[in-house]
Design a protein that fits this description.
It is a multi-pass membrane protein. InterPro entries: MetI-like, MetI-like_sf, Sugar_ABC_transporter. The chain crosses the membrane at residues 12-32, 70-91, 98-123, 208-226, 260-282. With 291 residues, the chain is mainly alpha-helical. It has one domain (58-288): MetI-like (MetI-like fold, Orthogonal Bundle). 74% of the residues lie in helices and 3% in strands. It is built from 14 helices and 2 strands, in the order H-E-E-H-H-H-H-H-H-H-H-H-H-H-H-H. The protein has a two-stranded antiparallel sheet. Helix 12 (243-253) runs antiparallel to helix 13 (257-284). It is globular and about 75 Å long. The N and C termini lie far apart (49 Å). The model has no long low-confidence stretch (mean pLDDT 85).
Length: 291
């Protein structure tokens, strides 16, 4: 019996292809086009080749913003991931308290980014804010996030931890609840300690959700814009100016569309590369021990 190919099914993929092309491919190609042109006016551009890439890569302001971004991203990851695991381990596993704890934990995630920034503007003000007045007057530590770069930096980091650690907690809690009870029963029979249960059962079983948590938080921390913009406006000086704010200033404030487009592509590739490294490391972590 002669077989023949029916390719009509490919038409079912066409709507998805059109949506992806409209939402991702066309904007990306537009940015690539802008990155190799000097935009003089709408519809007027001069081809400059890789000049904007060279200029952006040698810009010391970009180097400083990139370093600040890396320190910030790794700092929040180093705090939020262990803290999220620790909180998830302390949550109850049965009863009405489970729902109550999960709802309370999810509350910061429901607050819009600009509102989070506004809350921390009021909360941290040294004259009327609860935390600002407590630190200044009760603890006697001079604190002013609008004038001191270290204070502003710490305030942005603490704000991010308050806002996004609940996401890590919820992911870890879901991973813990998915572990079959038989593992705990076997550990109890063997007389395993609490640390051994965590090290050899809970942590390996949470690898999948931890990978999601690390990738989500890393990519999101690299895209942070609204909260520090509302809280500090990128200052004092450039102490809290991260890559996204640097890009916005370049594209909208200075209207340097060519360099901004080149920077956008470099920005995208950096996130892609670092996310791939994280994914590879977490995926291969523990394989040697398993063998």
């Amino acid at each position: 019996m002669e077989k023949w190919d029916d390719n009509k099914a490919w038409f079912l993929v066409l709507p998805v292809f059109l949506v992806v092309a409209f939402s991702a491919i066309i904007p990306l190609m537009t940015v690539v086009n802008y990155s190799v042109q000097d935009i003089m006016a709408p519809g007027q551009g001069i081809f400059v080749g890789p000049e904007w890439y060279r200029e952006v890569l040698h810009d010391p302001r970009l180097h400083e913003a990139f370093l600040r971004q890396l320190i910030y991203s790794f700092t929040v990851l180093a705090i939020e991931i262990p803290l999220g695991i620790a909180v998830a381990l302390t949550l109850p596993s049965k009863g009405w308290t489970v729902s109550a704890c999960l709802v309370l934990l999810a509350l910061p995630l429901l607050i819009p980014w600009n509102v989070v920034g506004t809350i921390w503007v009021v909360f941290s003000r040294p004259d009327i804010g609860l935390s600002g007045m407590t630190i200044n007057e009760l603890l006697g530590i001079p604190y002013n996030y609008t004038a001191d770069p270290m204070d502003s930096w710490l305030t942005v980091v603490i704000m991010d931890i308050w806002h996004w650690t609940p996401l890590v907690v919820l992911l870890c809690y879901a991973g813990l609840q998915a572990i079959p009870e038989a593992y705990y029963q076997a550990a109890k029979i063997d007389g395993a300690s609490r640390w051994a249960v965590f090290r050899f059962i809970q942590l390996p079983k949470m690898r999948g959700v931890l990978m999601i948590a690390v990738l989500l938080r890393f990519m999101d921390s690299f895209m942070i814009y609204t909260e520090p913009f509302v809280l500090t406006g990128g200052g004092p000086g450039n102490s809290t100016t991260f890559l996204s704010q640097f890009l916005t200033k370049m594209a909208i404030g200075q209207f340097d569309l060519g360099p901004a487009a080149a920077f956008s592509l470099i920005y995208f590739l950096v996130i892609l590369l670092l996310s791939y490294i994280f994914y590879t490391v977490i995926t291969n972590l523990g394989k040697g021990v398993a063998k």
